[in-house]
Amino acid sequence: MAENIGIVLKTEANDTAEVLLDRHSGCSGCQSIDGGCSSCRTSAQKMQSRVANPVGARVGDVVKIRLSFGSLFAGAAILYLIPMVCLLAGAFAGSWLSAMLNMTELPGSILGAVCGLMLGFALVALIDRSAGIRARLTPTIIAIVTPIIGVPAKHHTPYR
C-alpha cells in the first residue's frame, strides 16, 4: 500500500476532497538529520489530488491517504499500456492494409500508428469516465492525523 500525508484544501459534496501532497522521490524521504540526501532536498514539489473522503475530513485537516499497489499498477497500465498497444496494433494493421492494397508499407504503418494512438487515448478517456473503475482507482483518506510538535511527520498519530 502506498501511503502519503497531505492537507485538505477543499471538500466536495460527493465525499471527495482536494488534497495537497508532497511529491516524493524514489527514496520516500529519509528524514536525515542533515536535511536529507540530495534526492530528498530536490523533491519538494507539491501536487494536488482528488481523493475519496469517507472519514469526513474538513478543510485544513492533515490526513493520511492510501492507494493500494494493485490500483496504482492498474492505473499505470490503463494510462500507458492501452495507448501503446493500440499504437502498435494500428501500425501493424496499417502495414497489412498497405500490403493488401499494393502500396508502400511505410505511409500505411505511420497512418495506422497515428490512428491507433488516437484510438488508445479515446479508450483511456472512456475508461476514465467509468464511475466503477474511477472509484476503484481513487486514493482514499484513511485517517485524520495531528502533528505532534517536535516529532517527525512519520510519527503522527490519528485522533479520530
Molecular structure report:
By secondary structure, the chain is an alpha+beta fold. It has two domains: 2-68 and 140-158, Beta Barrel (OB fold (Dihydrolipoamide Acetyltransferase, E2P)); 71-135, no CATH class. It contains four helices and six strands, in the order ββαββαααββ. Strands 3-2-1-4-5-6 form a six-stranded antiparallel β-sheet. Strand 1 and strand 2 (16-22) form a beta hairpin. Helix 2 runs antiparallel to helix 3 (105-129). The two termini are 21 Å apart. The model is unreliable at 31-36, 39-43 and 153-157 (pLDDT under 50).
Order of helices and strands: EEHEEHHHEE
What level of helicity do the residues show? Answer: 40-55%
Q: Given the structure, what is the number of helices?
A: 4
What is the C-level CATH assignment of the largest domain? Answer: Mainly Beta
Q: Would you report the number of β strands?
A: 6
Unreliable spans are: 31-36, 39-43, 153-157
- CATH 2nd-level architecture of the largest domain: Beta Barrel
Radius of gyration, rounded?
22 Å
Main structural class: alpha+beta
Shape: rod-shaped
CATH T-level fold name of the largest domain: OB fold (Dihydrolipoamide Acetyltransferase, E2P)
Mean pLDDT value: 79
Distance between the termini: 21 Å
As an assembly, this protein is single chain
Quickly count the domains: 2
Work out the strand percent: 25-35%
Short description:
The protein is of the alpha+beta class. The chain has 4 helices and 6 strands, in the order ββαββαααββ.
Give the tags:
160 residues, alpha+beta, OB fold (Dihydrolipoamide Acetyltransferase, E2P), 6-stranded antiparallel sheet, 4 helices, 6 strands, 43% helix, rod-shaped
